[in-house]
C-alpha cells in the first residue's frame, strides 16, 4: 500500500518536461501551468480507472472527507496541484501511522524470543526506501514552491526567484492576486506539520524545509496589517485561535528539534530580510527545551 501511494505521488510529480505542451510559442509560465494541469488530470484519471490504485483512492477519499480546506477545482492550476499533493501526503501519513500502530501492538503482544543468529530485527513499516524518500522529497518541493513560498510576504524567507531558474518561473506563475493568500499559507503549513508528526516523515520534511516552515509560522503567528478606514490592527483571514496555534507550533519546533539546527535556522532568518527579523522578536524570549533563553543567540 505504501508503494501504491508513492506511485500515485510519482504520477502527480512526474517531471514537467515529460508533460509539457506542444505549443512552442507558449511562455515558460504557460508551459509549467499546462504541465501541472496535465499531471493533476492524469492522477485523477488513473485513480478512477486503475484497479490497482483502488485502495489508494478509497483512503484518499476518507482523508478528503475530513479536509475542510480542500476545494477543487478552484480555477487556479497551481493551487489545485498543491491540494492534490497535500491530499496524497496526508494519505501516506495516515497509512503509515496505522501500519506503525498495528506493528507496535503486534510486537507488544508477541512474547519476546531469543533472536536467531544473524537474524535482523523486524523492519518498522514506516521506513521508506531511498527511491520512496526521493518521491516524497519531490512532492514536498512542489508543495513548498507552489503552496508556501509564493504566499510569504515580501521580505519573509528566501524568494523563489533567488533559488533556481524553475523558482523564477513558479514565482511568476503564482504572483497573481488571490483572495485569501494567508489562508492558503496556513493550509499548506498546517498540513506539512501534520505530515511531520510521523517521525519517519518528519526527518524528510525538516531536513529540507525547516527554514521555510519557520518563516511561514512567523508570518502566520505574528503578522498584522491595518484595516482601511480603521486605526485598529487586525490579523487578516485567520482567527485568533489559528494565529495562536501557529505561535505554539513555532515554539514547539524551537523546543523539540535538535538545538544547533534550530539556532542555525534562527540566525539565517534573523540575518536575512528585515521583516522576518521583526517577527522573530515576538518569540525571541521563549525558552529552549534545556532552559536556555533564546535571546542569547540574537
UniProtKB/TrEMBL annotation:
Pfam families in the record: TANGO6_N (PF25267)
Official protein name in the record: Transport and
Taxonomy, superkingdom: Eukaryota
Organism: Takifugu flavidus (sansaifugu)
Signal peptide: none
Domain TANGO6 N-terminal: residue ranges: 4-277
GO biological process, one term: protein secretion
Amino acid at each position: 500500500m505504501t508503494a501504491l501511494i508513492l506511485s500515485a505521488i510519482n504520477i502527480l510529480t512526474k517531471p514537467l518536461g515529460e508533460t509539457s505542451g506542444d505549443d512552442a510559442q507558449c511562455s515558460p509560465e504557460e508551459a509549467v501551468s499546462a504541465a501541472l494541469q496535465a499531471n493533476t488530470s492524469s492522477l485523477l484519471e488513473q485513480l478512477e480507472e486503475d484497479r490497482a490504485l483502488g485502495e489508494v483512492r478509497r483512503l484518499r477519499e476518507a482523508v478528503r472527507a475530513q479536509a475542510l480546506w480542500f476545494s477543487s477545482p478552484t480555477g487556479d492550476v497551481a493551487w489545485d496541484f498543491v491540494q492534490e499533493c497535500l491530499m496524497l501526503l496526508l494519505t501516506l501519513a495516515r497509512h503509515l501511522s496505522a501500519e506503525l500502530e498495528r506493528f507496535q501492538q503486534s510486537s507488544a503482544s508477541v512474547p519476546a524470543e531469543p533472536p536467531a543468529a544473524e537474524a535482523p530485527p523486524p523492519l518498522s513499516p514506516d521506513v521508506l526506501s531511498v527511491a520512496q524518500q526521493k518521491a516524497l522529497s519531490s512532492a514536498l518541493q512542489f508543495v513548498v514552491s507552489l503552496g508556501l513560498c509564493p504566499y510569504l510576504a515580501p521580505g519573509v524567507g528566501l524568494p523563489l526567484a533567488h533559488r533556481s531558474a524553475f523558482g523564477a518561473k513558479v514565482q511568476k506563475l503564482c504572483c497573481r492576486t488571490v483572495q485569501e493568500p494567508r489562508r492558503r499559507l496556513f493550509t499548506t503549513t498546517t498540513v506539512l506539520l501534520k505530515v511531520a508528526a510521523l517521525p519517519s516523515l518528519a526527518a524528510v520534511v525538516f531536513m529540507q524545509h525547516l527554514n521555510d516552515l519557520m518563516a511561514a509560522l512567523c508570518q502566520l503567528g505574528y503578522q498584522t496589517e491595518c484595516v482601511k478606514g480603521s486605526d485598529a490592527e487586525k490579523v487578516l483571514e485567520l482567527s485568533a485561535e489559528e494565529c495562536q496555534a501557529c505561535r505554539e507550533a513555532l515554539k514547539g519546533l524551537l523546543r523539540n528539534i535538535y538545538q544547533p539546527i534550530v539556532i542555525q535556522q534562527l540566525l539565517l532568518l534573523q540575518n536575512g530580510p528585515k521583516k522576518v527579523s521583526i517577527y522573530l522578536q515576538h518569540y525571541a524570549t521563549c525558552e529552549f527545551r534545556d532552559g536556555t533563553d533564546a535571546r542569547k543567540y540574537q
